[in-house]
Write a structure and sequence with these properties.
Length: about 450
């Protein structure tokens, strides 16, 4: 049965209304570390299991029995290490390439390409692995792990600073280390990869792969495709969590770690002037049980107008969801029992969030823009109907139907069956009626029906 978690968030003085965030339980997997949209323009999701599996989640929340990929034989699944990232090549429909980010034995960060099977692109052969990039790291924690293709067609890779505490090796500020960085590589190469010629340290001091630096442990980052900004949620040391936002076209950004934790000095020994660094657009402390940021996305869907343009993220320890509007964070109350590990976005730009307990939720608001719901695909049949009416091509849960007679009087209110989206109309007398379909008590559509 569908479960809804409804939280009324605390409204800041700058808000003219309070917001209601709903988490609708959608699917259950194991050890989720990433949720990636289908490469084939449908609304399936690909859920990454830290142990080394990738599962396909269908649009109705069911899980395909066969793994898309199983590389548990080579993934070092321990603590913060494991299979952490997934990105599909922009030309996946043609080349069937996709890329993963994981730890091998000995903590090595590995970015590899795999190929989906031609006969069944819902599965991939582990033997097709082509290792693109290997980065040795000294400690088990701070692995980073987000990978995405940018609008420029290059693969962007977020790495942690190598671990321990306080970045003891100074990797974040070392432009010759690939740790604590945002990397950018060209995977369209017969070699492992090529270096984009516009990377900022090509031909000068610094590793050619680096696009920006000074990160502690970005978990996670995302692109806002509308503005082409990059958003990085960087986990803090002991006191501060930070959110960074810069244009994706701006190279050589220094985000400041380990010199600064958020806006506060941490260890400025040997550091450049603060004027050369880019500080977070917003930060928050660890009050109220907060401890570790989980980055999300700017909402660009068309269902919840109150969320559009706002950055949605979470805190792992407090189990709260944050909504960032400009520089103001509005926090939800805690969704108890859910330590949020990652967000995802489907091809309709709707958001999902996963927790360490394996649950994947749809992220929603009660302010539903019904006028923006695609009603053209919904079919109501049979007409005329005898005992049952069926709603086709809609996968939403918590649907209800109100039946009105032609004078507008309500004669039946009933839940739409979850399993087959049926409406029992056996109690209706023969005649003409109006069926009003609702989602969470908000009207989606209405249509004339005939009862035999």
């Amino acid at each position: 049965m569908r479960k809804l978690l409804l939280i009324l968030s605390c409204a800041f003085a700058s808000e003219v209304y309070s917001q209601q965030i709903i988490l609708e339980e959608f699917a259950t997997v194991s050890n989720p570390t990433e949720i990636t949209a289908s490469p084939t323009n449908d609304n399936r999701l690909f859920a990454v299991d830290q142990s080394g599996l990738i599962k396909i989640v269908n649009a109705n929340g069911t899980i395909e029995a066969t793994n898309f990929l199983n590389i548990t034989d080579r993934v070092n699944f321990s603590g913060e290490m494991g299979l952490l990232g997934l990105a599909f090549h922009p030309d996946f429909a043609t080349n069937r390439y996709f890329y993963v980010y994981y730890n091998r034995a000995g903590r090595t960060i590995t970015v590899s390409r795999f190929t989906a099977n031609s006969a069944n692109p819902n599965t991939a052969d582990p033997a097709t692995e082509k290792v693109m990039l290997s980065i040795e790291k000294p400690f088990t924690n701070h692995n980073g792990g987000s990978i995405h293709f940018g609008a420029d067609g290059y693969l962007w890779i977020s790495t942690g600073d190598g671990g321990s505490g306080g970045d003891p090796n100074g990797n974040g500020q070392n432009r010759n280390s690939l740790l604590g960085k945002m990397l950018r590589i060209d995977v369209n190469s017969t070699a492992a990869y090529n270096i984009p010629p516009t990377n900022p340290f090509v031909g000068v001091d610094g590793a050619d792969e680096i696009w920006s630096y000074g990160l502690r442990n970005g978990w996670k980052y995302s692109f806002d495709r509308t503005t082409n900004n990059i958003w990085i949620a960087d986990v803090g040391q002991n006191l501060i969590e930070e959110i960074n936002r810069v244009p994706a076209t701006t190279p050589a950004v220094n985000y400041g770690w380990r010199c600064y934790e958020g806006n506060s000095e941490y260890n400025t020994t040997g550091c450049a002037n603060a004027s050369t660094m880019t500080f977070p657009v917003v930060q928050y402390d660890h009050s109220g049980g907060k401890c570790s940021i989980t980055g999300g996305y700017v909402y660009r869907g068309n269902l919840y107008p109150d969320l559009v343009g706002k950055y949605i993220f979470a805190d792992y320890c407090s189990a709260q969801i944050g909504i960032l509007n400009n520089t103001t964070i509005t926090w939800s109350s805690a969704f108890d029992g859910n330590n949020f590990t990652t967000f995802g976005e489907d091809n309709s730009k709707q958001l999902y969030i996963a927790a360490a307990n394996g649950k994947i939720f749809k992220v929603k608001s009660t302010n539903l823009a019904v006028s923006d719901v695609d009603k053209n695909q919904i079919q109501i049949s049979p007409i005329p109907a005898k005992d049952f009416i069926f709603i086709k091509n809609i996968y939403e849960k918590n649907l209800t139907a109100e039946i009105l007679d032609l004078s507008g009087r309500s004669v039946l209110n009933i839940n739409v069956a979850e399993n087959d989206k049926s409406i029992d109309v056996t109690t209706l007398k023969s005649g003409n009626y109006i069926l009003v379909l609702k989602k969470d008590d908000v009207k989606i559509m209405s249509q004339k029906i005939i009862k035999e």
